[in-house]
Amino acid sequence: MISKKMEATLNKQIELEAYASFLYLSMASWADQQGLEGAAKFMLRQSSEERDHMLRIFHYINEVDGHAITPAIKQPPKTFKSINVMLEEVYKHEQKVTKAIHKIVELCYKEDDYTTLNFLQWYIDEQREEEATMRSILDKVKLIGEGGQKLYYIDMEMEKFNAMAAAEAAAEADA
Ligand code: FEO
User: Can you give the three-state secondary structure of the chain, one letter per residue?
Assistant: First the structure.
């Protein structure tokens, strides 16, 4: 059983994760339009991961006798100034999500809600990984710089992350 305040806070988090899923889907579509296949594939996978993040909270709320609410999602931007700007936005959004998760952790301590605290552990790890991935991509983008073939190299780098994610998924399936 969770408090009404915790239920409302977790429902807010559902909204944030759902928005991230739609924002990343919109980014995938834009990247695809620019011919950036690696980036499109990367953002599509991120979008589907965010949907999974949303659903985990959704199931958790109902499991602890709360009421998970399907959120209204505001329209995400349809276009982005550049791939660099788009990737910076992803990183900023992930930092915002991390802060929101930390706020819920604070509430867990205030309410002595150790069940939700335990549930959130997975999100803390996930956010650390996601922020690290985005920082690593942004570092590569800085190294590539502004040369004429910049887009080609950025897309190639993102394809490497796709290959890593595919290898990890295959290893998990074998385990
Ligand atoms: Fe679920 Fe990447 O925030």
Answer: CCCHHHHHHHHHHHHHHHHHHHHHHHHHHHHHHCCCHHHHHHHHHHHHHHHHHHHHHHHHHHHCCCCCCCCCCCCCCCCCCCHHHHHHHHHHHHHHHHHHHHHHHHHHHHHCCHHHHHHHHHHHHHHHHHHHHHHHHHHHHHHHCCCCCHHHHHHHHHHHHHHHHHHHHHHHHHC
Q: Which atom of ligand 1 is nearest to the CA of 20?
A: 3
Here the CATH number for the domain that contains residue 48 is 1.20.1260.10
pTM: 0.94
Instruction: Please state the domain count of the chain.
Output: 1
Given a cut of 90, whether residue 146 has pLDDT beyond it is: no
Mean pLDDT of 81-107: 97
Cβ–ligand 1 contact at 23 (below 6 Å) = no
Ligand 1 in contact with 53 (CB < 6 A)? yes
